[in-house]
Amino acid sequence: MKETNLKICYCCFSLYKFNEAEIFNCPVCFEEQNQSQYIDYLYTSRKIVRYGYQYRDHYEKDFEINPEFSWRYHLVELNEIYNFIALAISNTIVGNIAWEGVKTLIKKIKNDPLIIEIQDDEFKKFLEDEKEQEKFVKYIHEFRNEKMNTHPKVLEAIVDEIETHEKSERLMQTPQIKEIIARLEKMEKLPKLKSDKPKKGKKK
């Protein structure tokens, strides 16, 4: 997953540099935010983006090509900035308020010098594609509200992905696997492996 060192205020949609304090304030609207809660929200948004938008988009396109498709993917996660946008969407009311908020956020991203640090061609295309942005808002809300308006074949594929990833995550937490990873790391055969969910109160 490609990450950034930015945070987003889900009240005013401002972007700012990462703050490690447990309790911090948005530098623009001064809304107080909790680090542990923020990390939990962002973790949830990451899952929503991954399954509600990224995988759904892929499988809907596959369905259009071949309604009988049966293959599955293991997609590389989208840039963390997508999760920021989803976080903002999840904290707004369904409908025009969410869409207007996203348009405001997109405009800020385009004009924010911090975003220069994000070199992601796919996201740059997203910034210029209003139709894709509207679809993103729609898919995020539908997944969050458990009302995805898509074909059962696509839903089946998304559920398969969720179950596979959850099993993999549980496996990575078993003592046997942790011991094997620790041994390999000592042998310097692998880089340090990190859990998908960050520890609360610490910078990723």
From the alpha carbons, calculate the radius of gyration and give it in angstroms.
18 Å
Helix content: 55-70%
Mass-distribution shape = globular
Pattern of helices and strands? EEEEHHHHHHH
- How much is the average pLDDT? 78
| Structural class by SSE content | mainly alpha
Supply the number of structural domains: 1
Low-confidence stretches: none
What do these coordinates show?
This protein is mainly alpha-helical and 204 residues long. It is 56% helix and 6% strand. The chain has one domain (6-186). It has a two-stranded antiparallel sheet with strand order 1-2. A two-stranded antiparallel sheet has the order 3-4. A hairpin with a 6-residue loop joins strand 3 (23-25) and strand 4 (32-34). The termini are close together.
Keywords summarizing the entry:
mainly alpha; two-stranded antiparallel sheet; 56% helix; 7 helices; 204 residues
Summarize the structure.
With 204 residues, the protein is mainly α.
